[in-house]
User: Which sequence fits this backbone?
């Protein structure tokens, strides 16, 4: 289908521009080709970088607690961490400790050819490292860590080392909190053990002075003895009274013997009453101390159990992340993308040539010499 030509001429300005470009078409083409050729040469001279990427997920730190490990918690705990855990790993990934680890481990001063004696060398090597190092969070809450380097094997090693260092730093942060709790719990156990020793010493002193060693058994024994003694006294008094009522000469010896027995029983009752008085006086303090000792002993046993659990927790190898994709040695270069460089050179050269032609053609219309006259 042919377009119908209505015979309308283009605007004068557009016609002038197109006419100028057509007249200078050969220089424009040559300039564009030369620019593209120079861009190709420059792209060939640029160093080649390889990129290695590893991805991982944040692990829920609540998994590494004594309540979860030893079954003290009834709630269900998720395996993977939430937003706060991901943010913590991202903060660690950008921390100075991690960057210093990579710089020292892989001698990046030598790799990037930076003089380490220069006062700004630390800043320069970190800037160069950050240009080749990146950690991002994907929409699926996975963290991707990428490292670019001229050596593909070193790029993979740096990515793996950075990932493991992130895990170590995160674990150290969590472990430091567990260690503080462990030390505090240890101090609490020592304090309670000392208090328990003081209570035992007080109990020993009271028992030694009062003769009360087992309140339950001794109380039952004293009660039984008191009841038995009262019965014996009552029986003896009754027998004496019976003999006296009979008023027989032959009963005088029996009465004398019973009176001696009654005197002995009365003396025993006085002694027993003294023991009962002493027992009752010390019963309250002893029971109170024994109750405190029982409660404190249970608390010490519970704290010792938790202390042992924290010892095992601190001795357990922990991880703050789970690897989704391992960092592999790259075989395809990441940069430079030579096709884009050449294309950019062609576009830049073409636009430069076009703008130059338009400026030159516009300038030809004026008498520039009149300015200096």
Assistant:
């Amino acid at each position: 289908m042919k377009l119908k030509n209505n015979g309308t001429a283009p605007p004068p300005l557009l016609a002038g521009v197109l006419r100028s470009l057509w007249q200078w078409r050969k220089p424009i083409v040559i300039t564009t080709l030369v620019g593209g050729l120079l861009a190709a040469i420059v792209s060939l001279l640029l160093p080649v970088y390889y990129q290695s990427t590893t991805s991982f997920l944040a692990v829920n730190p609540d998994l590494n607690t004594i309540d979860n490990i030893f079954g003290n918690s009834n709630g269900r705990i998720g395996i993977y961490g939430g937003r706060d855990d991901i943010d913590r790993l991202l903060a660690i990934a950008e921390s100075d400790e991690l960057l210093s680890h990579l710089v020292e481990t892989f001698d990046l001063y030598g790799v990037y050819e930076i003089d380490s004696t220069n006062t700004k060398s630390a800043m320069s090597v970190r800037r160069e490292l950050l240009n080749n190092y990146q950690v991002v969070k994907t929409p699926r809450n996975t963290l991707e860590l990428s490292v670019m380097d001229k050596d593909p094997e070193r790029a993979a090693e740096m990515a793996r080392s950075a990932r493991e260092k992130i895990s170590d730093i995160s674990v150290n942060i969590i472990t430091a909190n567990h260690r503080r709790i462990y030390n505090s719990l240890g101090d609490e156990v020592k304090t309670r053990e000392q208090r328990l020793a003081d209570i035992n010493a007080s109990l020993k002193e009271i028992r030694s002075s009062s003769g009360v060693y087992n309140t339950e058994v001794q109380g039952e024994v004293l009660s039984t003895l008191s009841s038995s003694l009262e019965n014996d006294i009552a029986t003896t008094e009754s027998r004496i009274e019976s003999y006296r009522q009979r008023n027989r000469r032959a009963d005088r010896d029996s009465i004398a013997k019973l009176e001696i027995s009654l005197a002995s029983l009365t003396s025993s009752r006085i002694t027993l009453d003294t023991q009962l008085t002493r027992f009752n006086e010390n019963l309250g303090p002893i029971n109170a101390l024994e109750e405190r000792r029982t409660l404190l002993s249970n608390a010490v046993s519970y704290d010792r159990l938790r202390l042992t659990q924290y010892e095992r927790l601190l001795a357990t190898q922990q991880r703050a992340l789970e690897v989704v994709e391992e960092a592999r040695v790259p075989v395809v270069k990441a940069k430079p993308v030579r096709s884009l460089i050449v294309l950019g050179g062609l576009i830049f050269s073409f636009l430069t040539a076009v703008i130059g032609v338009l400026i030159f053609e516009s300038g030809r219309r004026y008498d520039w010499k009149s300015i200096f006259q």
About this structure: The chain has a mean pLDDT of 79. Residues 24-46+339-352 form one domain. The longest strand covers residues 49-58. DSSP finds eleven helices and five strands in the chain.
